[in-house]
Amino acid sequence: MHRLAPLALLLALALLGRAEAQPLPPSQVQLNGTLGTRAALLLIDGEPRTVEVGATVNGVKLIALEDGRAVVEYGGRRQSLTLGAAPGRVVSQNAVTPRQIVLSAGPGGHFTTMGAINGHATNFLVDTGATAVAIGQPEADRLGLRYLNGRHVITQTANGLAPAYQIQLASLRIGDVEVRNVEAIVIPGLLGYVLLGNSFLNRFQMRRENDVMTLDLRY
Predict the structure, then answer these.
(1) Mean pLDDT, to the nearest integer, of 13-26?
(2) Does residue 61 sit in the same domain as residue 111?
(3) For residues 80 and 37, is the Cβ–Cβ distance under 8 A?
């Protein structure tokens, strides 16, 4: 039988206690904002923290900030977080691609949500009467969309017919679900939201129960 001397036993117990005291990595990390390219506002397991590039806070290391995304490392993995997207999670390498969006009705019964176009955060409003995703020109400028190179079209607005530009969005993301190559039109004037029209909605099976709308990705 092996025996430990009293001093060795105390040292072993101290090391064991130190090992047990190591904090677990966070299960959820979300990007809530940025301070230029110097730091990010992260929500780590529900706790808001400011993390500078290269620093580690609560087990989360901020690797880089670029184009509205934060590259972080935690739980032994590196992830890219998008402003307005659902929280990043520690998941299996074989995790199934997310295919469902669940929205709750807000004031007036409208369904609004945060998301991103081409990696840039924006606000959406579901509009089943719109043929395509519709973006006001000021918001299109902010998002860096090159709509002037798009196809010139005429669209029907609340104020009558108006010239517009038809373009393809490389990426439209809501929560964990990302859809690529989405048709959109850029119209004159300022819209309070990007209208989430049928060029996006038709990619999903839609159902509504009371104040909850569920979108299941078809393809």
Answers:
(1) 50
(2) no
(3) no
